Amino acid sequence: MNVIGTRPDAWWKDRHGAMVALVDKLERWAAVTGDDVTVVFEQPPRPPIRSTVIVVTHAPKPRRDSADDEIIRLLRAEANPGSIRVVTSDTFLSDRARAVGATVDPAAAFRSLLEDQP
């Protein structure tokens, strides 16, 4: 939601629509760059959002910062967390991700990259 929330485009009026739009942008990004992409939501999207291009997942239990905790869990499960880039505007998550070895990119800058693609 950090990436979605970087623009005050009334995404909060249609949270699910904003999530679908983000997944669509990430799918196009992955197709162009060849990057493996995982998007982690705090709760399961209703209706579910599926992709054959990227991984769409969610925290096991929805609560404040649960997606952040899931991201850190996924990083710790990685053999090479240094190869992972976490996109967030959350300072605490950034610090935690770097401590595990991941790199961090700001959410607003990444969203600009997504929106600049064809």
Low-pLDDT stretches are: none
Question: What class, by secondary structure content?
Answer: alpha/beta
The major sheet is characterized as:
2 strands, parallel
Radius of gyration: 14 Å
Distance between the termini: 22 Å
Integer count of domains = 1
The residue-averaged pLDDT reads 94
Order of helices and strands: HEEHEHEH
Give the strand order, joined by hyphens, for the main sheet: 1-2
Instruction: Assign a percent range to the helix content.
Output: 40-55%
Principal-axis shape: globular
Q: Say how many strands there are.
A: 4
Number of helices: 4
**Beta-strand share of residues:** 5-15%
Description of the structure:
This protein has 118 residues and is α/β, with parallel strands linked by helices. The chain has one domain. It contains four helices and four strands. The strands form two sheets. The protein has a two-stranded parallel sheet. The protein has a two-stranded parallel ribbon with strand order 3-4. The relative contact order is 0.16.
Could you outline the blueprint of secondary structure elements for this entry?
Elements: H1 15-33, E1 38-41, E2 55-58, H2 66-77, E3 85-87, H3 91-100, E4 103-105, H4 107-116
Parallel strand pairs: 1-2, 3-4
Please describe the structure with a list of short key phrases separated by commas or semicolons:
about 120 residues; alpha/beta; 4 helices
Quick gist of this model?
The chain is α/β, with parallel strands linked by helices and 118 residues long.
